[in-house]
Write a structure and sequence with these properties.
The complex is a heterodimer.
Chain A: E1 16-17, H1 20-49, H2 54-79, E2 81-85, E3 88-93, E4 98-104, E5 108-114, H3 117-121, E6 124-131, E7 138-145, H4 146-162
Antiparallel strand pairs in A: 1-2, 2-3, 3-4, 5-6, 6-7
Helix pairs in contact in A: 1-2
Chain B: H1 10-13, E1 21-22, H2 27-49, H3 57-75, E2 77-80, E3 84-89, E4 95-100, E5 106-111, H4 113-118, E6 120-126, E7 135-141, H5 142-159, E8 170-175, H6 178-187, H7 190-205, H8 209-226, H9 232-262, E9 266-270, E10 273-278, E11 283-289, E12 293-300, H10 302-307, E13 310-316, E14 331-336, H11 338-348, E15 361-362, H12 368-372, H13 377-390, H14 400-414, E16 416-419, E17 423-428, E18 433-439, E19 443-450, H15 452-457, E20 459-466, E21 476-482, H16 483-499
Antiparallel strand pairs in B: 1-2, 2-3, 3-4, 5-6, 5-11, 6-7, 8-9, 9-10, 10-11, 12-13, 12-18, 13-14, 15-16, 16-17, 17-18, 19-20, 20-21
Helix pairs in contact in B: 2-3, 6-9, 7-9
Classes of the chains: A alpha+beta, B alpha+beta.
Chain lengths: ~170, ~500
């Protein structure tokens, strides 16, 4: 597996963490995900039960959700690692429930690279690896360094070209 | 009848210069009927139950549909080229589609009773992935459909060079006589599905019909019983006979449904393609290439064991998730003896797979409590609720637990996995057993997962992903593996997969 890319990226550089900038993205994302439902849920509950100060309770829920989301996002950031080696791409996730998913390079069907507005600002990207499988047919990694993501895409896609398209 | 097509492929076989052809002249009628089918139940219901007879607007809709069906007929042309099928369709929005034969994974020829009266058939061509078929030709003359199917089978085989191309004649691998189909009906739970479907359909159209029926039926029954003052023995007898009648009814429905769907089931092999034909009134004939088969499931339920039978299913990558899932080739043997199932597997897997020679590894039986644990929740909750309501008698529910512990223990005793040179297999279950296996070439992705409990016990679960696995098919996974063994297996498989190109 020797090609011109080995100068910029080793074939197997071991398990790579996400760049520190991704922590902010994941914290923000999870904070938004947690806070809004919690605030709305509390608001509706308090109003339905006829208790006092529904807005204040909703506000507390919002703050709680923001805090919990940020905490969880940070945990997700610290538990996510990816790896590209001679066999293909691997993604390790979770600390309590650990999952390591491996997509051999020969099984990659196609790849998506996504840049959201915030991701563009922080030079991050989301890589989606598609296989022909059923349960794990898409493997999504968000918060990758944009340059890393592009190199990953190029390397995995090159494998595709090597395959014949008979 | 849709029996073996004679080599009358001559008209379609004329190569690239073959003229454009149309569908069958009556095809617009079938398109119309197909479109009407979704309206027919409401229409009939409105007619019989609606009362208001002067609603003519549905007829306008029918007229519009008829015109579009006719338009569709007049604009749909197809041409058989050299290894390619091109289809032109549309009037305002025109489309032209070129489908290479080599890309077609599944060919299905379907004939309903009405189709058979007109001697026509519906042809459906499917490629891998994708929810919709590549082409759906509704309808062709039966011999045209069979000729086209035959042509695709031949060209498809010729386009992918291989050693097995020389075999020409159809070879029957499995044929089910009526007795076997009856057994299939007895074993399966189709009746329950049918009943459920019927109840759902009825409650769609008339929501109050079923509850009212049950209410009046119950009132009559209890009124009658109340006026006779039976003892508890008579009540028990009545309940038992009612339950028995229900079971008999369900089985009768199952048998009827099995007869309708599986009468004349025949699995045959033609070169590298497999063909399944079945059906009593509506005939279905579907064929797929042998190497397109993905993961396999061999199943043996309690009733299967009673009759000494098993069933063999296979996932195929084409259209597996769509609404027409039942039309793709899934059932290699709806019911067959264990020996003939094994023979089929041996025959259809590549030669080096070695299904018979697999070296099965048992799982650690000491992990039985981990199978048992998730099952504790419901009885425990039920016991709490019953104790709260009835007092100490509610604790009787907990008598279930020793049994479930025993079942978990037996389950693990039977469970195991095997890794051959070209095959990976998992077996699970005790009462109802299954074997799930796939060629290593057909694996798509791997996952190693560890729950908190796994980490405490030093174990891990290895998941293997294949294409075309339905949500209901059992997963290909090895549970309760010692972590070192799981890691080794994971690394070994990942390495092997990276070396082997994906072959559809």
């Amino acid at each position: 597996m020797i090609d011109q890319d080995t100068t910029t990226m080793h074939v197997d550089a071991g398990w790579q963490p996400l760049p520190p900038r991704a922590a902010s993205l994941l914290m923000l994302g999870h904070a938004a995900l947690f806070a809004l439902p919690l605030a709305l849920g509390l608001l509706v509950l308090v109003t339905a039960l006829g208790l006092r100060m529904p807005l204040a309770t909703g506000g507390v829920g919002l703050l709680l959700g923001l805090g919990a989301g940020a905490w969880y996002g940070r945990k997700v950031y610290r538990a996510t690692f990816w790896r590209l080696d001679a066999d293909g791409f691997a993604l390790r996730r979770g600390r309590l429930w650990q999952r390591e998913t491996r997509v051999p390079a020969s099984r990659v069907q196609h790849l998506d690279l996504r840049h959201g507005p915030l991701e563009r600002r922080w030079r991050l990207a989301t890589l989606v690896v598609h296989t022909a499988g059923s349960r794990f047919s898409t493997v999504t990694v968000s918060g990758l360094d944009a340059a890393d993501a592009e190199r990953l895409r190029d390397r995995l896609a090159r494998q595709l070209d090597d395959d014949d398209d008979a | 009848m849709m029996t073996t097509p004679e080599p009358s492929a001559a008209p379609a076989a004329a190569a690239a210069t073959s003229p454009e052809r149309r569908l069958h002249p009556w095809s617009w009628l079938f398109v119309l009927l197909q479109q009407l089918r979704q309206f027919v139940v409401p229409l009939v219901a409105a007619f019989f139950f609606g009362g208001n007879r002067n609603e003519l607007w549905p007829l306008i809709g029918v007229a519009v549909l008829a015109v579009t069906s006719l338009l569709q007929y007049f604009t749909y042309r197809y041409r058989v080229g050299d290894g390619i099928l091109s289809i032109r369709s549309g009037w305002l929005h025109r489309s032209r589609r070129e489908i290479p034969f080599a890309r077609i994974h599944n060919v299905a020829v379907q004939q309903t009773l009405l189709h058979r009266l007109f001697d026509v058939a519906e042809l459906r061509l499917e490629s891998a992935g994708g929810q919709k078929p590549e082409a759906q030709m509704r309808v062709l003359r039966l011999d045209d459909a069979l000729a086209l199917e035959r042509l695709i089978r031949h060209r498809g085989a010729a386009a992918t060079p291989g050693p097995a191309d020389v075999a020409v004649d159809d070879r029957v691998l499995l044929a089910l006589p009526t007795a076997e189909v009856l057994r299939l009906g007895l074993v399966s739970n189709r009746g329950l599905l049918l009943l459920g479907g019927a109840a759902a359909a009825v409650s769609q159209v008339r929501p109050r019909l079923l509850p009212n029926l049950f209410e009046s039926w119950g009132e009559t029954l209890f009124g009658w019983a109340g006026s006779h003052h039976f003892g508890w023995a008579q009540y028990a007898l009545a309940a038992a006979s009612l339950a028995l009648a229900f079971v008999v009814l369900l089985r009768a429905l199952s048998i009827a449904s099995a007869l309708l769907q599986y009468h004349g089931f025949r699995l045959s092999e033609h070169g590298r393609r497999l063909t399944v034909e079945r059906g009593l009134l509506a005939r279905l004939r579907t064929s797929a290439s042998r190497r397109r088969l993905q993961a396999w499931t061999l199943h043996e339920g309690v009733l299967h064991r009673l009759f000494r039978r098993r069933s063999l299913h296979v996932d195929s990558a084409a259209g597996a998730q769509g609404e027409h899932a039942q039309r793709t080739l899934r059932e290699l043997a709806p019911i067959a003896t264990p020996q003939s199932c094994d023979a089929l597997i041996e025959h259809l897997l590549p030669r080096d797979a070695g299904w018979h020679a697999l070296h099965w590894q048992p799982l650690d039986v000491r992990a039985w409590w981990r199978l048992w644990l998730p099952g504790l929740v419901v009885p425990a909750a039920l016991a709490v609720a019953l104790v709260w309501r009835f007092g100490a008698w509610g604790l009787l529910v907990l008598a279930w637990l020793p049994w479930s512990a025993f079942a978990a223990h037996r389950h693990l005793r039977h469970a195991g996995y095997a890794l051959g040179p070209a095959l990976v297999a998992v077996r699970e279950g005790w009462w109802s057993r299954h074997w799930r296996f796939a060629e290593i070439d057909k694996l798509q992705a791997l996952r190693l997962s560890r729950s908190p409990l796994d980490r405490r016990c030093g174990t891990a679960t290895l998941w293997l992903d294949t294409a075309g696995a339905g949500p209901l098919s059992p997963p290909l996974r090895i549970r309760f593996l010692p972590e070192a063994a799981a890691q080794a297996l994971y690394a070994q498989l990942a390495h092997a997969l990276a070396r082997r190109p994906l072959r559809w």
